[in-house]
Amino acid sequence: ESESESESSFLSSRSSSLSSLSASPSSSSSSSSSFNIYFIGLGPALMDIRETMYKQAPYSMALAIGGVVFVLCCISFRSAFIGVRLLVTVIFSLAIVVGLTVILLQDIQIGGAQGDGIHFVVPVVAMPVLVGLTLDYDLFLLVRIFEYRHKGFSTADATTLAMYKTSGIISVAGGIMIIAFSSLIFSELIILKTTGILIVLTCAIDTFLVRAWLVPAILMVGVEANWWPGKVPPVSLRLKCFSAEEVNDDDDDNRAGYEEIEEEEMGEAGAQAEEEKEEEKEAGAQ
């Protein structure tokens, strides 16, 4: 009897309970009793794991990602809107990536997929990586825009200059990530294959679509209001671009000016900004 009780307790602790059925005896019985039925095996265990993961993980990740991104952006950029705009780009990228992956695995069934869609383990494991990749390139661009805006460029000019300066670096970095993670796509394990598809699509979309089009477009909605409530200096610099006709191949300075976007002071505004900087330096020295 003791042996059977220990065996029953072992099964209860090790097995996953899919459902519990309770029953009460007939009304003639004065005492009530209940019993549980347990199902054991890999299938029920996986179902319990999936239920537990999706009961907590989505809300925890959403709260952590949203809170951290918003708070850090408020601190770093001193802006209440940059964090919201970053979250919009993250949601945009993830929605497209997950949708395309479902189409590839469930509808097209590439690479021997059985039409079951995304394995339930993959989103929980891969989502933090995808968010990190999405934020990485977008933040790299936004930091440069922020720097140029504080140098005295307008938000539109700062965005143009930052795009010009960082486009090559971000494109090369995105290409390297695509090539590196594409090897996972050729794996026979569906979990690795799905993870590879998600990461490759995220890198491609964020590098060539979100960073190049969506981030500048969103910044142009509010323009100077993007930096509220932080303070930015008045516009004192503007961009000067050379056309091909203006470039003299024999003149190294002209050729360098054609290759680089020049900064040109805007007359009185530039002089006034310089005077204010000098006054601040003198006040600090005193």
* Dominant shape: elongated
Unreliable spans are 1-31, 251-263, 265-269
Give the helix proportion (percent range).
55-70%
**Strand tally:** 2
Specify the biggest β-sheet.
Answer: 2 strands, antiparallel
Order of helices and strands: HHHHHHEHEH
Which range does the strand content fall in?
under 5%
Task: Please state the CA-atom Rg, rounded to the nearest Å.
Answer: 29 Å
Chain-averaged pLDDT? 77
Strand order across the biggest sheet? 1-2
Class of secondary structure makeup: mainly alpha
Terminal residue distance: 91 Å
| Tally of contiguous helical segments | 8
Layout: helices, strands, pairs:
Elements: H1 2-14, H2 42-77, H3 82-108, H4 121-151, H5 155-181, H6 190-222, E1 237-240, H7 252-259, E2 262-265, H8 268-285
Antiparallel strand pairs: 1-2
Describe this structure in words.
The chain is 67% helix and 3% strand. It is mainly α and 286 residues long. α2 runs antiparallel to α3, α3 (82-108) runs antiparallel to α4 and α4 packs parallel to α6 (190-222). It is elongated, with a radius of gyration of 29 Å.
State the gist of this model:
The protein is mainly α. It has helices at about 1-15, 40-75, 80-110, 120-150, 155-180, 190-220, 250-260, 270-285, and strands at about 235-240, 260-265.
